[in-house]
Amino acid sequence: MPILEKRKAQEMALVAAKRQRNELVAVASQERQLLHAVSGPPRTSSLQAPIMLLSGHEGEIYAAKFHPEGNLLASGSFDRNIFLWNVYGDCENYAVLNGHSGAIMELQFSTDGSTLFSASTDKTVGLFDMETGTRIKRLKGHSTFVNSCHPSRRGPQMVVSGSDDSTIRLWDTRKKGSAQTFQNTYQVTSVSFNDTSDQILSGGIDNDIKCWDLRKNDVIYKMRGHMDTVTGLSLSKDGSYLLSCAMDNTAMVDGFGACRAKHMVSLGTGVLVRHVVAAVRRRYAIESTPLSVSDQHASPVMCSVHHQAFLHVLLRIWDVRPFAPQERCVKIFQGNQHSFEKNLIRCNWSPDGSKVTAGSADRFVYVWDTTSRRILYKLPGHDGSINEVDFHPYEPIVLSASSDKKIYLGEIQ
């Protein structure tokens, strides 16, 4: 199938599609019905084919979300663009939203689907009108990368954002400037509201999930258990449970090889500090260990260690209802992996709460059963880290977005 090139995008405007998608399975409707009747499983969705491949981004894709109505999806990339795609038919990329000057780290739709919120490394949160495709607001206040944003489910249209500047900002989209600022100790990598939008849930590189009360302007409780950076948070549809994804548990080291991770070891200060350079060129000090240094060293001794490694990622479900027990962690899921690229791998619930999903650095999409904690699906296809996976709001369709610059839509049983 020919690939169509997009004309140059205009600032903050709807423009023509970048490229059409490529189909992994593409047959006429009558032939498709005959094929599956004879040799394949019955179809479970209205996708044109069981698996659809969407390509066109020129950089790693960090964020992708289905629209609440399920007829379209949005994706955000290191190329600074937000693409809008049709879910059904040929899955055309029908529009490109411009306006950010940095990588798109997270995308979220408002509850009614009228507004798209974007968090970017250009230090801003963007608000885009879904009817016109124009950017209607640019929320400025953070001093460095914005890693996450999330709109309120109820009440006035509020949005919360978390940043590498170690702050969480609450914004009233009807006004200029942030309504409240919460000072965290370390970088904030993921944020969400609770169901009633009177509390903010945040995760960061300090491994803890914090619950901030908007009236008290302070942390009212912490959820501890993760042993490394929390990369994603997702609230269940009924608002009772919070799903979290983190870089827990160091696992197998594959040996020396090409890898962007680099450990910087400083012996002169008596402290070993491990730094990681991530895909968006950030640097975190994620672990410190006291060292004994010989007095013979008059000046600091520096060395670097390169290796390729994977971390086993842990997903946890937390009870965030009022008056929940002190031990709020109710379930743990294992299987997916993280690499030392330290991308912010996100997690999500299925609409009925029976499944959870997350991306992985091992290039597989993982889907778990929430009751048994069993892995239901381990889906291949990508050639890079899978940074976000999302469930369709009405049909058994899974969306995956990857550092390989591709998006897959696949139906499940």
UniProtKB/TrEMBL annotation:
One of its GO terms (cellular component) is catalytic step 2 spliceosome. WD repeats lie at residues 54-87, 97-138, 139-181, 181-222, 223-253, 349-378, 379-413. Coiled coil: none annotated. It comes from the Eukaryota. One of its GO terms (molecular function) is RNA binding. One of its GO terms (biological process) is mRNA processing. This is SNRNP40 protein. It comes from Branchiostoma lanceolatum. The lineage of its organism: Eukaryota, Metazoa, Chordata, Cephalochordata, Leptocardii. The gene is SNRNP40.
